[in-house]
Structures are given as structure tokens and as C-alpha cells.
Known about the structure:
Strand content: 25-35%
Distance between the termini: 52 Å
Number of strands: 4
Number of helices: 1
Radius of gyration: 18 Å
Strand order of the largest sheet: 1-2-3-4
Mean pLDDT: 79
Structural class: alpha+beta
Amino acid sequence: MPLLIAFIIAVVVVAIYARRNTGTRACRWREDRAGSKGALIKYNCITCGAEAFRSTGIPDRCMSGQGGASKL
């Protein structure tokens, strides 16, 4: 019985740790001047394939879970 409880606790700890890092993947953003729209600059992530349009600065988080494309 104590072994079963220890196993369940270990599974919960691993699940929490694995879920913690889902929003901060190692995205590597590249500027795509050909796809820019006026003041909005298009960025493509070469890691996950997400797209983002920003007016200032490079995106600071992974946007692959937001439908593949995002406008900020």
C-alpha cells in the first residue's frame, strides 16, 4: 500500500512538472519582411511554425497553441 501511494505521488509530481513548461517552448523567431503589413512586422518561429505580427519587438512566448497564427 505505501508503494502504491508513493507511485501515485510520483506520477502527480511528474505531470505537474511536465505541464509547467508547455507555454515557454524554445521558439526561435525570425523576421519576415516580405510578409509584413504596413507597421506590423511578421515573425515566423522556425521551431514550431507559428506566425505573429508585432509592431514592436520580437514575440516573447510560444504561440503554437493559439491556432498557428496570432496577431498581437
